[in-house]
Amino acid sequence: MNSWKQVLDTFLLQTQTGDLKTSSYPKEYSDLKMKVSFGMGMPARIPWIAFTAPEMQVSKGFYPVYLYYQEFNVLILAYGISETSEFDKTWPVEIMNSTSTIKAFFDKEVPRYGDSFVFKDYNIKIENDKVEYLSNENKIMSEQDIESDLRTILNYYKKTVSIEIRKEDSVLSQGLFYMEKQLEDFIINNWNKTELGKRFSLIIDDGELVSQQYKTDIGQIDILAKDKETDSHVVIELKKNQTSDDTVGQVTRYMGWIKKNKNDENVKGIIIAAEFDKKLEYALGVVPNIEVFLYQVNFKLKEFKGV
Predict the structure, then answer these.
(1) What structural domains does the chain harbor?
(2) Residue 272 and residue 268: Cα distance in Å, rounded?
(3) How buried is residue 59: exposed, middle or buried, by Cβ count under 10 Å (0-12/13-18/19+)?
(4) Whose CA is closest to 47, among 80, 69, 22?
(5) Which of 6-20, 72-86, 267-281, 291-305 shows the lowest mean pLDDT across its residues?
(6) I need a surface site. Which of 36, 81, 216, 235 has the fewest CB within 10 A?
(7) pTM (two decimals)
(8) Residues 50, 58 contacting (CB under 8 angstroms)
């Protein structure tokens, strides 16, 4: 499956077979989790492909989803809403107020997902192993059209989720906090593949890694490393669901401890955060030996170069 249309063609052709297996499908797409379902135990009336953000589930959340209404030979790319458990957040009001629900689109009750909202709809024509996607004007949709539609709704979804993450009291923000705890393990396990690993070395003592959760008498440093050029210590802290002021204070305290107890006048600090805000910028304006790295949801690190 080299293109998205090939994935979607395979999905639609499989709906004609009764085969419920999904192991051959991608587990991720465009930095989102991807899940395919043809039913469990018996074929579903509405097979689907869903794309979810980290810490969100198909059974509890909101997400872009393809829903194939075989009875009508219609595939809908929808602003999906979970039917199983209500989520604290959903699609923005602008979507719910201006977009037709699926049951309104068909003008009748449908077997499932009637309260989700229509983004795009395609009339499906399947002959032998060929799938055609037709617009309402009976025009054949190109591969580029189909991929463009998906990319548009996925980008909108990511923006919506990103806004929720920035709210400290939101459910998605709490999910991000969980991810940050896992991020520490990810960084350690993939050290040499990150920007950090190019400049700094982890600390090994008697054959054991001591860098992670490095113990001091004022607390544990998330990661303590060494600068490859100067051999100075580097205090690395993740901004775990706390204010920028708290994070900077924590880093400087640990830097002070290293300076005194390790006799290191050139100790540096690094903060790893999901975003760079004004409070953090002003705090670091008077602490020039602390850098900031930003991480993305797909766990790639990039150094912040200023605003």
Answers:
(1) 4-165 (3.30.920.90), 171-303 (3.40.1350.10)
(2) 13
(3) exposed
(4) 69
(5) 291-305
(6) 216
(7) 0.57
(8) yes
CB 155 within 8 A of CB 105: no
pLDDT of residue 139: 92
Count of residues making up the chain: 307
Locate 106 and state its tokens: 């068909």
Retrieve residue 166's tokens: 């920035």
pLDDT digits (tens, 9 = 90+) for 265-278: 999 999 887 666 67
- Beta pairing class for 233-238 and 268-273: parallel
DSSP 289: T
List beta partners, residue 156.
none
C-beta neighbour count of 208 within 10 angstroms: 7
Say how many CA atoms lie within 13 Å of 251 toward its Cβ.
31
CA distance 157 to 163: 10
| Mean pLDDT across 34-43 | 90
The position carrying tokens 């957040």 is 89
The token pair that represents 236 in the structure block: 């690395």
